[in-house]
Amino acid sequence: MALDNETFGQVKDTVTRFVRERLIPAEDTVEQTNDVPEDIIQDMRELGLFGLSIPEEYGGLGLSMLQECEIIHELCKASLSFRSVIGTTVGIGSQGLVMTGTKEQKEQYLPRLATGEISSSFCLTEPDAGSDAASLRTTAIKDGDHYVLNGTKRYITNALRAGMLTVMARTDPNKKGASGVSAFLVDPSIEGVHISKADEKMGQRGTKTSDVIFENARVPASALLGGEEGQGFYTAMKVLDRGRLHLSSVATGISERIIEEALNYAAERKQFGSPIGEFQLVQAMLADSQAELYAGTSMTRDAATKFDAGDEISMLAACCKMFTTEAAGRIADRAVQIHGGAGYMSEYKVERFYRDVRLLRLYEGTTQIQQLVIGKNMLKSVQG
Ligand code: COS
């Protein structure tokens, strides 16, 4: 699925304008209030941003992966909290349903997700199951025509805003690994689901993560994603493969913005009688950042194009996520360096962005997990 080029061009122009005219001017408010204003979220609904990846037949824009990456790159030229509001609905929260949901499940949730009437979250991580996702302990035990969920999910982005949770839980506690895990679509307003207050974080103020606790939460058997037990972990992995391309565009978008901040500062700030951008050591930092941005956007475009063609992209997505998020860290660090002492002051945006991008190397799989995925796939290609 993809939008025709002309309509896509219009959507992209609209997002570019929205970022410049609405989001960037609201960045300080988000930082001060630790929240994204409701009128901005309403504008995002009206622009169709919640429905970027949802098929047109369910009311979304039905973008291809390549198109989604381009829009996310544009959106992430503003503080990352804005993208976070739509991020789980566009990405990991809804894509299990899009990929493997039954017709009834899609009809139940996708139209409301596409308009932003409800948001979704992806509940995989637990207090004792982070990188080792297959060791998750939340259970979903069959009881007549229901499943009963018990367990705790941690750092769940947008759980406080969600109307639908995609929850990975163990339906067969006797099977310890991946094959005992199933996925469920859970309405968080049902009895037995508790969402904790938002976590305090290093950066990305305005994004909301919390614990989701299940205490004998009864969901109908029809909530089992795809109607099949034992598929939850595999679905989660496929969702994360795709999510890592989305996140690579988050990294390249904010990197472009950070370079712009550093470049503008270097062109204006004078020392030793000249703008500091005219000094070769400052140019070297700018050049390294620009080359890394170009490499990151090019590889993400390439992998997204291959994803759209139906190729297997686990390894490429991990390469993109690892490279672009590590590069974003270096780019933010150089931008602070170019700003000198000013770069450490919250008055300048690079101080904030430096903290914000630190998360990119951690969530949806740490850099070390990406290395494992790349290494395993490389070996598989020679060992079969
Ligand atoms: N697509 C489909 N299936 C996949 C897959 C993928 N990308 N990756 C792995 N699988 C399958 C494997 O084929 C294997 O299948 P079998 O049970 O039939 O053997 C199963 O899943 C388990 O795979 P593997 O043995 O590689 O699992 P491990 O437990 O060793 O680890 C990693 C897998 C580390 C890659 C996984 O746990 C992971 O991605 N962890 C990070 C989790 C993460 O990103 N968390 C962030 C939470 S969301 S913000």
Summed up:
It is globular, with a radius of gyration of 21 Å.
Q: What does this entry look like structurally?
A:
The structure is a single chain. The chain is an alpha+beta fold. The protein has 3 domains: 5-115, Butyryl-Coa Dehydrogenase, subunit A, domain 1, CATH 1.10.540; 119-230, Butyryl-CoA Dehydrogenase, subunit A, domain 2, CATH 2.40.110.10; 234-383, Butyryl-CoA Dehydrogenase, subunit A, domain 3 (Up-down Bundle). It is built from 11 helices and 9 strands. Helix 3 crosses helix 7, helix 4 runs parallel beside helix 5 and helix 9 (314-339) packs antiparallel against helix 10. It is globular. The chain starts with a helix and ends with a helix. Bound molecules: coenzyme a persulfide. Residues 122, 124-125, 131, 133-134, 178-179, 233-234, 237-238, 240-241, 314, 363-365, 369, 372-373 line the site of coenzyme a persulfide (COS).
